[in-house]
Amino acid sequence: MQKANHRKSSIMPVLGALLVLMPGTLAFGQQGLSGFEIAKLVGTTTSQRANMICTLAPRARDGLTAQETAVALGDLSGVYRLKALTCLAPHVQTNLTGSEAAQIVGAGQSFRADMACQIADHFRPNLSSKEADTILDELSGVYRLKALRCLEPRLGHNLTGIELAQVVGDKLSFRRDMLCAISSHAKGDMASDQLASALGGLTGVYRLQAIKCLEPSAARPLTGEDLARVVGPGQSFRKDMLCALAGHTSGAMPADELSMALGDLAGVYRLQAIQCLDRNALAVTDRLSLGENTLRFDPEPRDAGSQPETGSNASGAAFARGQVWRGRYLCAQGPTNLELDILGVSSDAASSGGGEVDKVSAIFSFNFNDGAAEGAFYLGGTYNLDERSATLSAQQWIKRPPGYFGVGMTGQVSADGRSYSGTIAGPGCGAFSVQLTEERLSADPPPGDSRLGVCGSEKWQLLLVPDYLRFDTGFGGVVDVWRAVYLGEACRAHDSCYGRAGSQKSACDSEFLQVLTTRCNIDLSGGLWTLARAKCQASAAGYFGTVSRLGCDAFKSAQRTAGVVEASCD
Q1: Rounded to the nearest 5°, which phi and psi values hold at 249?
Q2: Which residues contact 357 (CB under 8 A, 6 or more apart)?
Q3: Is residue 425 packed enough to be buried (19+ CB in 10 Å), middle (13-18) or exposed (0-12)?
Q4: Residue 306's pLDDT is what?
Q5: Which residue of 115, 143, 450, 525 has the fewest CB atoms within a 10 Å radius of its CB?
Q6: Is residue 164 assigned to a domain?
Q7: Do 45 and 75 meet the contact criterion of CB atoms below 8 Å apart?
């Protein structure tokens, strides 16, 4: 303690002397001190150096060079260097280069961002990426972001992706925010490899948000390979990234390029990405939703006697084996799509009082936020025919996403037997409502289920694709539950495209793939059918490959019939 007090007392006379020497002007007869003179006055010590510099700063000359300022600051670092620099900043020269600014803030990282911000108005305009990196040095994360926001107005324009990467550094922390902060300085028409360099190792939502900031600078048109390079190898938020870049594509991407861009996306995400990237695909799916006759996918008409009834009957029964009910429910995660598949209904002879009761077994299949979470589990319970009330409880899981638990449901069936609504029994849950569809979960195999059919067979006698594909859920223990995906309309549309004079074979085949994939996603929607949907999409890709490789003779034959003698399959 005595040594510390002695050291403090030895400094105070120096500071006091400085104060005495400056009542209005310096006793030395000097004003407009240079940085070297300030350094000489404060000496070589670092103790109280910041205070002494601030005492002398009002007498400093304007336009102190970077070298003068650095000499005056000496070996000060951290908060003390920041304090002294704050006092000297009004006197520092303007148009500092990156290396001059780095000389002033010093070699340390402590409070470097604050020092850079303190003199940011003194930087020269149009700093290069190398100069910016020299100023920022080894700063990272929020500190680099803070400094970068201060020097951004002085940053040069038309920066390449590599130069953007140099400015933001090689770390991932706050990289997205830094890229967005300087996105207006990116050069236009930036190639995919340059965009990828800027994005670095960002993934998921951070890469998506950075892409949205840089998107105006992306080149046009981007190919499927370009898109794959920009969005990266991950699948998280891939659909959103592709949709954000869709305006930079040709709008009619060849199937091989489209497949490269889509990567391993599956289900509704793959469908939505296709709709974003290919305007032809969007037109097809729009017509699907509107039910236009040209591309309707309804199965071929069946005899009325073969259609099972799905509504209620006079006895008051509402549920029947094979029914598919669809709607939504509310739980902690938010509004969620729900499919209720009825596996079996039997009379409960053991019930007493309260009216006639049926035992009901079903599958509760849910899809939250367009596939962000999908799952399915068994339900079991009873339906009171007189009261038209059903209570079902969760049983074994079929597919369980992380963080989800099984829930029950209690509600009333409407008088016409086509609506079931009530409350979900589970923490944080609320109401549900489902409506009876005309679909059947399991029925007699549709006509032509096992035969090869219309894809070429009606006109060109080329048997390539079946009329129907039949899928079970793919989950062990789910028995006697399957669905048929009808391919007939897609095949007939493909035949028709081959037969239109002047058609391009590749365009017909690409539309065929889009329609098949859409059919898979529509007929096999919901968490219960995740595995089946992926198999269906793989089958669609296989059939596309088949017609692409083996359909040339059929295409030429169809074109000759349409009056085109020399048709090409290229």
Answers
A1: -105, 175
A2: 347, 348, 351, 382, 383, 384, 385
A3: middle
A4: 33
A5: 450
A6: no
A7: no
Range of the domain at 411: 316-440
**Domain closes at, from 440, 458, 479:** 440
Residue the block writes with tokens 């060849």: 254
Q: What is the pLDDT of residues 172-184, one digit of tens each?
A: 889 999 999 999 9
Tens of pLDDT, residue by residue over 6-32, are 444 444 454 454 444 444 444 444 678
Consecutive H or E run containing 344 = strand 334-347
Asked whether the beta carbons of 174 and 206 are under 8 A apart, the reply is no
**Are 365 and 455 found together in one domain?**
no
DSSP string, 20-54: HT-SSS-TTS--SB-HHHHHHHH-S--TTHHHHHH
Between 470 and 103, name the one with better pLDDT. 103
Report the chain's mean pLDDT, rounded to a whole number: 78
User: Domains in the chain: how many in total?
Assistant: 3
| Token representation of residue 391 | 């209570």
Residues 451 and 429 in one domain: no
Residue 399, both tokens: 């597919």
426 in the same domain as 451 = no
Please tell me the predicted confidence (pLDDT) of residue 168: 92
Query: 472 pLDDT exceeds 60?
Result: yes
In a domain, 368, yes or no: yes
- What CATH number did the domain enclosing 424 receive? 2.40.128.620
Write the pLDDT tens digit of every residue in 25-48: 444 446 789 999 999 999 887 788
Partners of 384 in beta bridges: 357, 389
Structure token pair of residue 211? 């892409």
**Which band of pLDDT confidence, cut at 50, 70 and 90, is reported for residue 74?**
very high
- Residues 321, 414, single domain; the answer is yes
Query: Averaging pLDDT over each range in 271-275, 305-309, 378-382, which range is the top one?
Result: 378-382
- Same-domain check for residues 436 and 322: yes
Residue 268's identity, in one-letter code, is V
* 100: its two tokens: 């001059």
Domain boundary among 38, 73, 92: 92
Between CA 553 and CA 570 the distance in angstroms is: 12
Q: What is the DSSP letter of 465?
A: S
User: Is 397 or 416 the better-scoring residue by pLDDT?
Assistant: 416
Q: What is the CA radius of gyration of the chain?
A: 36
